[in-house]
Amino acid sequence: MKIHCIAILGRHGNPIYLRNYDAHEDDVKYHYMAHTSLDIIDARLAQPTSSYLGHLQTVGDLSVYGYITNTNIKIMVVSSASNESPSVRSSQMRHVCECVHAAYVALVCNPFNERREEDRVQSERFDMVVEKLGQLTE
Amino acid sequence: MSGDTSSEMTQLLSALSLDGKPVAESRQINGSVFEFFLPELVNTLVATTVETKRAAERLALGLETEPEDPAEQPEDAGNTEADSSAGWVELPDDSELMEQVFVKLEAVGFRVGRRLAERFAPLNRRLVDTLDIVKFVCKDIWMLLFNRQVDNLKTNHRGVYVLQDNKFKWFLRMSGNCGGAAAARRAQPYIWLPCGIIRGILESFGVSTVVVAETLGLPQCTFQIKVVSDE
Description:
The structure holds two protein chains of two kinds. Chain A is an alpha+beta fold.
């Protein structure tokens, strides 16, 4: 299983972060995928759920998994098919989402980070964490 | 996928301490440090606001911005030697100035509240409506900040919530010789920071509010949350 993209969208659906692990793919494709996943997330939120939303949609051979925090930050992971069972893949994806959430919390709690809510994430440490996450699952 | 990668991720997760445990034992600080910090924060903001105002007045009058005579310094800006009869210092009587101090303190609290909300928002359950969020503030946030819960929560179910804390931790060490009412009035600025914190937390969950607080007698204090609807 390979992670192709990790995307974070803010409270109002604005893109906050996108990490594209494919050198040959354009970011636009993943922005679009993340944006279309928003509707699916909204539909899932109609019922009571936990933070991890699981598999959202499949586009071609790529699957999108979603995670929403209580502060309405949405984390999406795009990965390609794998050989593991769905439950194993689900727990791996959940783990990845939780790590991204933890890194985001660490970023927000940094008092020297002057980012406002609607700004993009610009942090070397955050980039490092996401980089490591992308390599872990190869 | 080997077990190694998932344990690496667990390590990453615990290093970022989202599970609520401290990162390392050596990184804890004494909780009472904040109780020392708060009066200094308030006094410094009052003093700097007074100084900014006087500098602006001088500029408007065409004088230099630096006062030449140190005796001209305001004696009521946190300088404890000045008024020793009451054993404490009166806040400047200027309501416009205190309004500015209020805005600054509340803004600091707001930023702190936003961070608290991101850091301590519950992971396994979703907070569905405003009442859930306010209950989260009353129980979880109060427990984190003050090691106790809010004593009384009242709501009119139409967007107004009243939180009552009868032993507000940051007021426990405050007292004055001039009587309860004067002490309560003097303690006003120290309550503006928690107002900002509550507003910041609610804002993180998407609820726009106005938070005011009052104290009728230390150490009791009451916070009133009014939800501002977007219509």
